[in-house]
Design brief:
Strand order of the largest sheet of chain A: 10-9-11-8-7-12-13
Distance between the termini of chain A: 53 Å
Strand content of chain A: 15-25%
Largest interface: A-B, 66 and 66 residues
Oligomer: homodimer
Number of strands of chain A: 16
Number of domains of chain A: 2
Number of helices of chain A: 14
Largest sheet of chain A: 7 strands, parallel
Helix content of chain A: 40-55%
Radius of gyration of chain A: 24 Å
CATH class of the largest domain in chain A: Alpha Beta
CATH topology of the largest domain in chain A: Aldehyde Dehydrogenase, Chain A, domain 1
Chain lengths: 421, 421
């Protein structure tokens, strides 16, 4: 079989599996998820073995220590995959929920009901635990999954999927054997082939660095839900409580600087900058944050801080670095964000409800916080229970994507012999 | 300016306009829509003049009579555009609606609120009234529109957009002048340029024949919501009321055979075929429908009907032609639809609620009717007031697309100095 045939066969099998998943009752899905969790624990030795092969090959390839660490599946990571699946089993079934119901004057009853999306392709980088997490969320939402991880994790990914499938089949006779598939080849050409299968693939969710995501978006013929980067800012308004402003800025920047919902840019209302900027700077510097300020901020702070370059406003530092800019009030903040934001998360600190409302309505981002840290944009924090990613797109899901965001909908119409005149 | 610059400028201007539209209160939007309606009526003479140029050029190009008829803007079509805009003004504002609200244990209040999508590109064929209809719906939902109609309608489209813009600006000082733009060149190269503008264009909705839609989907780098075709079927179950079955089949096929929600395939449960098929056939033939039957149906009907080819199951006839097939019960119907359906509309006629539920849950289509004609898949029939198209996609809108389907959402989070620990 050549690559096109191989991938076409996979996606057709996934489409057939998705039909069976649509029919599967919640109790069966949850029993399968629990069995999969147990199987991952029971087969930890097999998983370690395959992972050791990947680690060994990775060392030969000269992977960095950071990448090798991400590739590693130790006992605690295997346990985490298992408990992730058990948590997903506890969550409500996102499918079959009636979102709206209306009865038309002619008696036609219309119900808008959530459905699985169908076949979801997940493309990700080296972390093999994504295999279990993503497959579990897709399975619970009734979707068949085709997983394409990094080539350095292929053995680990295949064994995880195999263990999960076997547990599913052993639990439920209707479990479709192609519900979870791992692309079996490390060949990069498999990706454009997969993403050309518009008849059978309904959605692609890429997870990883901006390069991977751009490459996927560039070549895909199927819908993609993605986020390139999180250039999140906190705007300290003139009517902010100073203590709260410092707390939120510090938390947004330093609580976990390497993630997409960490603050990258601090915007300060020029009206209160002479008072508050030194306090903000002092607190951030105390947490080892390197500050890069525009001219007007620097005029207040002196040469103890770096000068921001134009590039800094568009940079996701993912590190203890923060760009700082003075803006002429909320409008200036909104304008800055419109130009430089990535549509992920923005926050305002103010005690003025009117200003907060304006900021929240006009800023175009998946999540806009008022008097809260940017770090709350997260499926767990939103009560979604688990998250497959965060979308900065506007079609389909936006913001954190949990089970509900892995569904589509259909309209069910009911008449009593109703015809159109 | 070369094409790329010209299109980039347009989309940037549209993006800026979309910011202003996000802020515009409902009352202003509705006042603008009413003023636009009046202006179209007041400037009927100017519209006729431009349209006459298009008609004249169309005749020279050798357009068919059908195409020339679609191109024509007579007084009744101008009135229809105006009343369409007035109807949209009456509809609720789809933006700013709270879809969900939750308070997390830490006190974080989360509201999921509808927002405009941003910049919407509409690509359509010769009917110039789409210009007013689509621009009106997009404007009410707070989106900036870039319209690209058929080259043969360019003058008509430009004058319609110009009249609407002028009315908007005359009504409301905040009306952004690039809220509604018509691509000013007939050059086809403008389309891939437009659809490559991922920074500024949020969605493309193509409307027209399958060729146009496939070409758009093929080249677009921005999300596309579309429907290729409507191969809708009606399944007459063994437990159907015979009179109702005949009424629904005839209505689905003949009430307006040239549209996407008309029935193309009639599936009949083989258990009742000997009884009901002759009645169904007689009623359809009485309405001048050409029947193309599979072997087993033909065995009942004899040689008075045509034989269906394999191709017929995948054909959108858009005419008084109907493919007919006997199937072994509801499962057979579902299997046929899985293989041949276009994801638009399917219907079952049965008095057995369990069978109906199975059909509605398992059939993968935007709309699945029970004891109702396929002809009800329509924005007006759904109570949406107006419709910009019908989506057979699963990401973003599915089924009829009214104002609500032209929105996205964002999360508004509110704390009282909330930080993440």
């Amino acid at each position: 079989m050549d690559m096109t045939e191989q991938i076409t066969t996979m996606t057709r099998q996934a489409k057939d599996a998705s039909r069976a998943l649509t029919r599967m009752p919640r109790a069966d899905k949850d029993a399968c998820l629990r069995a999969m969790a147990k199987a991952l624990e029971d087969h930890a030795a097999t998983i370690h073995e395959s992972n050791a092969q990947d680690m060994e090959a990775g060392r030969h390839m000269g992977l960095s220590r950071a990448l090798l660490d991400r590739l590693l599946l130790d006992d605690s990571r295997i346990s985490a995959m298992a408990s992730g699946l058990r948590e997903v089993a506890e969550l409500d079934d996102p499918v079959g929920r009636i979102l709206e119901e209306r009865t038309r004057p002619n008696g036609l009853v219309l119900r808008k009901m959530t459905t699985p999306i169908g076949v979801v392709v997940i493309i990700y980088e080296s972390r093999p635990n994504v295999t279990a997490d993503a497959a579990g969320l897709c399975f619970k939402s009734g979707n068949a999954t085709i997983l394409r991880g990094g080539k350095e994790a292929l053995n680990s990914n295949q064994v995880i999927a195999h263990v999960m499938l076997k547990a599913g089949r052993g639990t439920c006779t209707d479990f479709p054997e192609h519900a979870i598939q791992v692309v079996p080849t490390p060949d990069r050409a498999a990706i454009p082939e997969l993403l050309a299968q518009t008849d059978n693939v309904d959605l692609c969710i890429p997870r990883g660095g901006e390069g991977l995501i751009r490459a996927v978006a560039e070549c895909s013929r199927v819908p993609v839900i993605k986020h390139y980067k999180g250039i999140c800012s906190v705007y300290i308004d003139g009517a902010a409580d100073p203590d709260m402003a410092v707390e939120i800025a510090v938390n947004s920047k330093t609580q976990r600087p390497g993630v997409c919902n960490a603050m990258e840019t601090l915007l300060v209302d020029e009206a209160i900058a002479p008072d508050i900027l030194p306090r903000l700077a002092e607190s951030l510097i105390a947490k080892d944050v390197e500050l890069r300020m525009d001219k007007s901020a620097q005029a207040i702070m002196g040469n103890s801080v770096h000068t921001a370059t134009e590039e800094d406003w568009d940079t996701e530092f993912l590190d203890l670095v923060c760009a700082v800019k003075l803006v002429p009030g909320v409008e200036g903040a909104i304008n800055h964000i419109h130009r430089h934001g990535s549509g992920h998360t923005e926050a305002i600190v103010t005690n003025d409800a009117k200003t907060a409302t304006r900021f929240q309505l006009e800023v175009d981002a998946s999540t806009v916080f008022w008097n809260a840290s940017t770090r709350f944009t997260d499926g767990g924090q939103f009560g979604m229970g688990a998250e497959i990613g965060i979308s900065t797109d506007k079609i389909g899901a936006r913001g954190p994507m949990g089970l509900a965001e892995l569904t589509s909908y259909k309209w069910l119409g009911e008449g009593r012999g109703l015809i159109r005149s």
